[in-house]
Amino acid sequence: MSSIRIDSGWITAGLCITLLTGCIPAVPQDLLSELDMIDQDLIALGAPYAAPEEYADFARQWAALKVQADVSAELIRWPWESNDFEEQLRQLHAQGDDTVALVTQKQDDQRRTAKATLDRLEERFRAMNAHIDSLGGHLVLGEQPTHTDLLIRQTRTYFEQDHYTRAIHAAAEANQALQRQEAALTQALKRYADPQEIARWQAHVQYTVDWSRIHRSPAILVSKADRELRLYKNGRNVLSYPIRLGYNGIKNKEFQGDGATPEGRYQVRAMRGKGETQFYRALLLDYPNAEDRRRFQRAIQTGQIAPTKTIGGLIEIHGTENDVMAQTLGCIMLDNPHMSELFSHVTTGTPVTIVGATSEQNTIALALEDLSHYHEPLTH
Fold it and tell me: Does this model's pTM top 0.85?
């Protein structure tokens, strides 16, 4: 039978009921239930990770009080009698409410941080993808963008599942991957923002224009950065066409099979009409010329190119026959109507100058500059 304490001792619950109605349990079950709900709320909010010290202190006190509650479960007391145990429960209840508020605030802060970080990361990745074509970055980056895309998707999944800490960590990993890609692109294409390199290209351009004017003859200029072919006559630009390059055409050709397009001053060595080329029409250039051969030999001697490589050849300005042949491996490709028109204006011996860019404000330099704006931290 349950008992109740009166001053110096305990009496049975039956006697209490006989003497006076209104005796109450020594252990308030409503407070225990509320504290249990607070504990469940803290776990659901991720308090063990978001506020480990605060939650550990709450959990330690709660575990001790639950043991005490089990021991005193059958005890009752007078309504006017003080109850230290109940006061401890109420204090822990207030502490638990404070911890819930703290964790909720931390969760809100983490959610805002994760959201801002994810938004900026996705914006940065979109900018990277938007510039890949103009930067000619497919070969440079390989499968790296695919890996980064998976990391960003993982970040988005963590965020949508309210795992904000994990989302922030995943975003940091994706950000590092993007930084490596931007560094690789900048290293591979920095010459497009190099004033000395651009000045050298501009000298080639001026030589070609002057030659056309002096000899009153056609001359071809190709700008790889701007994906443009210009035809000059008597020193004036009379026609301009968009072009396509190979999968690595934005780089200067080094050896056979690298997919790059050579840069320098060349001539049309042969004109190939229908039935003489696999393409619609083609202008065969005199690549490799003497300068190309000297550069190739220097690269072999300095170890920049393996001695097993060859210099290659068969660089053309050509049209396309069908969709299958709509990709070139280092040549310069025009749409067939443009190729037909160009073919009618040039002859064997026509100068062809191929440069990386014609000005410092070229599309590749501008793209690299745009990407550099994303180098600042994702979070502030």
Answer: no
